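User: Um, what's this?
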Amino acid sequence: MADYFVQNSVAVIQLNNPPVNSLGSKVRTAIYENVQKANRDPAVKGVVLVGKGRNFCAGADIKEFDGGNKGAWITDIGTYMDNMRKPVVAAIEGVALGGGLEVAIVGQPEVAIGLIPGGGGTVRLPRAVGLKNALDIIVTGRHVSAGAAAKMGLINKIFMDLRSSNQSKALRYAFFAERQISRWELPSGGNYKTTKPMPVRTAGVIGAGTMGGGIALCLITSGIPCVLVEQNKEFLDKGLELMKSQLMMTVKLGKMTSDQAMKCWDTLKPSVLLEDMKTVDLVIEAVFEDLKLKRDIFEKLDKICKPETLLLPLLQSDKIRFRCWLVRVLDLLPIACQVPTPRRALKDFGMAMGKYEVQDLSGVDVGYRIRREAARKEGVELTPETRFFRGERNCSLVERLVEKGKGWYKYDSPSGKVAHVDPEVTEIIEEHCRALGIQRRNIGIKEVMERMQFALINEGFKILEEGKCRMAEEIDVIWLYGFAWPSLQLSLGAQQSIGQTQ
């Protein structure tokens, strides 16, 4: 009776009781429970109430009046929201009457049928619009138009302001950029008009680690059956255990039912045999970052898979330019400032995770092994004292973390998502700075964001100059989908980014 989902740190509670989303007991209870759920969730920064269909809410369900009070009452919901520290916004379309207005706090028509507004509106309405306007609405029961409501201060006149905001510009830019890149063209002459997409009915993933397991989970929850191959049963079982706990977490969060989760799980085929990839349409390799190992795997896949099967390596090497620059620019920050600072900067900006949380997820040893392999090929030995490599500053702090078996943060469980500062890591950082004679300084959020954004923008220009991308929008969409860049922040894209600074 009230749907719940979280998007970009905002919990959306959607009243779902057609035709007018009246506030029956089940709807009220669902609103109350979901508001409490959003308030408890540390990942949620704000709450939006909306109505499904063409109306917000037409008020209480008068058919229930003779049956006594059941479930949470409107005053309970209003009082709870008043006491929340997180902002709660009602996005109104159509009518918001009676209890709907009291929840939204555009009329209170109860008096027309012999009822006194009982959901707290007689208290909240005078606060919002003054006593004179409130009495007029409460006593007459007349409906108030959106324009009149905005004029008297009952609703915030935000929609026209939003249209001219940077966030609105960013969303419109992202909308058109995604459609623009669908009209792609290759230097060879191939384009969107002359090709057809290949259907992917089944997929395979090699490697059941954090990255591979996560990719396999995305596939099966998207409706694509997946073969998951690992080198031995021990590693496979460990990966499956983590995957199942993550799948059950989606059930706990209300994103799918238990039955839906089990149906997804049944489409996963775990295996220790590479030969089980012979019938899949797509293979994604997500093994240990070792180029020789990857080469051996693809030579075998070339013989096992169908000729038309797409073979995709999950490369994390320094040749991946954007990732490389973001890692290099931000890796040095913990030496100069507290680890939570870049994390807070990126999350406040709208990123789902901080950079160091991402490294913990994929494994801090991945970048360490990439650099070590690159150095080995050049005859260089990297040590914690190595300050420069390939003419650039080298952050050897990661080497110390790997030696100690540490990530950047500590978590409540192996699959935990809430990051906590680890005092032992703080000591490792401070000891590292003392050993190398590095003077720490305060780095503000502004500098953190400039380091990230300017490096990415600069690399984007280089990619355009080299002809690696045909249009600037391709790069901005890579930001959106490759980095999970917040669409609202493509105001950076709309004003500063590649697409608007040519």
About this structure: The two ends are 49 Å apart (CA to CA). The first helix runs from residue 25 to 40. Residues 98-116, 317-336, 491-502 have pLDDT under 50 and may be disordered.
